[in-house]
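Hey, I'm writing a tutorial for new members on how sequence and structure tokens pair up, and I'd like a real worked example in the thread rather than a made-up one. If someone can provide the structure for the chain below, I'll link this post from the tutorial.
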Amino acid sequence: MRPDVLAEFLGVTIRGLIDPLAQRVSTLETRAPVPGPAGPPGRDGIDGTDGQGLRYHGVHVPGKTYDVGDLVTCGGSAWYCGRTTTGAPRHSPDWQLMVKGGRDLRDPRGPR
């Protein structure tokens, strides 16, 4: 069989197989999704269920009592209190580093 005849035969055959599939995919893509049955409700999350949020207290004060959810700054970094504590950030496992302080960014061209 000549190569050009074989190529045309294969092209027609393949198009005959692909065209109906492409049309079916196009039809499915334009159809609105059919919602399924609702699943069981999930567990209640911790965030917000106690009615408490994060509370910023400014710069850490040594010896002051902080509660869960309190935020402070210390040494240029922001810290989250995970347990009621009088301990200090960087020295107590009751604190978790939220934002690590870095070098101050100064524009070499001066203030704008």
